[in-house]
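Minutes, project check-in
Item: structure for the 64-residue chain
Input as provided by the requester:
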Amino acid sequence: MALHSDQNLALREDFSEYVAHLQLHMTLQARNLVPTLTQTVDSREQLLHQTQANFEKFVSRQAL
């Protein structure tokens, strides 16, 4: 029974690590798709950057 529990724990840890890597990859990809902050001229771009920053802060503070 302990072996089965250890396998489940290892599987969950592997999955959590995979999700963390996927989140990092998606964040880096999103940064490549969004104009840099120095280019923000209109309010829509500023809103986009603020939303992205808030989302990244939220995700980075989530416990795995």
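Outcome recorded: The two ends are 25 Å apart (CA to CA).
No further action items on this chain.
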